[in-house]
UniProtKB/TrEMBL annotation:
<dbReference type="InterPro" id="IPR005162">
    <property type="entry name" value="Retrotrans_gag_dom"/>
</dbReference>
<dbReference type="InterPro" id="IPR029472">
    <property type="entry name" value="Copia-like_N"/>
</dbReference>
<protein>
    <recommendedName>
        <fullName>Retrotransposon Copia-like N-terminal domain-containing protein</fullName>
    </recommendedName>
</protein>
<feature type="domain" description="Retrotransposon gag">
    <location>
        <begin position="104"/>
        <end position="173"/>
    </location>
</feature>
<dbReference type="Pfam" id="PF14244">
    <property type="entry name" value="Retrotran_gag_3"/>
</dbReference>
<dbReference type="Pfam" id="PF03732">
    <property type="entry name" value="Retrotrans_gag"/>
</dbReference>
<feature type="domain" description="Retrotransposon Copia-like N-terminal">
    <location>
        <begin position="36"/>
        <end position="83"/>
    </location>
</feature>
Length: 205
């Protein structure tokens, strides 16, 4: 059993005092297969329903929410589906279906219907990435134009920088699939983007 499966240290067999729940499996709350009592089907994971516009921002909200719930592995492929004969399959299936429900409820009716019959949450995520994650040429051009034409005007330095940074962040979010997704421990990836932002700020002052 790999390290993504429920290990013996993460499982405890608990018995109800009345004896009615003998053999019931309790999952360690720190494990990805754990579902909090507040987790439910139909729960709104994010406040924004994705309707085909603003994918970058919506994508980030979803990732933050799933990371907080320890469920990102179900969409990024780091948690693989166990064999149906595995003791952990039912726990995986419950979490997978829960993530599918959350994703569907965060999509407009039209988009949700197009991925409704996907059986694995990662399949839904991959399809959304393929369809909407590509950078949008006209929007990129529009944001680049806004950045180049942005003037400080009556704004103080803090206000001007905040507005400029928001434009840079929006531009970055439009280009979600262009970014390297591998683990980076040297910080070079973050430094490169920060350098681009700093260059843009300097040229606009």
């Amino acid at each position: 059993m790999d390290d993504k499966s429920i290990s013996s240290s993460s499982i405890a067999q608990v018995t109800d005092l009345a004896g009615t729940d003998a053999g019931k499996t309790a999952i360690d709350p720190s494990h990805s297969f754990y579902l909090h009592p507040s987790d439910s089907l139909g729960m709104l994971l994010v406040n924004t329903v994705f309707d085909g516009k603003g994918y970058g921002g919506w994508r980030r909200e979803i990732l933050i929410a799933l990371l907080a719930k320890n469920k990102v592995g179900f969409i990024d492929g780091s948690i693989s589906q166990p064999k149906t004969s595995s003791d952990s399959f039912k726990s995986w299936a419950r979490c997978n279906d829960m993530v599918i429900s959350w994703l569907l409820d965060a999509l407009s009716k039209e988009i949700a219907e197009s991925v409704l019959y996907s059986k694995i949450s990662q399949q839904i995520w991959n399809e959304l990435e393929e369809r909407f994650g590509q950078s949008n040429g006209p929007q990129v051009y529009h944001l680049q134009k806004q950045i180049s034409e942005l003037a400080q005007g009556n704004l103080d330095i803090a206000g001007y920088y905040t507005k400029l940074k928001r434009l840079w962040d929006n531009l970055d979010n439009l280009d979600t699939c262009q970014h390297c997704t591998c683990d980076c421990h040297c910080g070079d990836k973050a430094n490169t983007f920060k350098s681009q932002q700093d260059d843009g700020l300097s040229s606009s002052l």
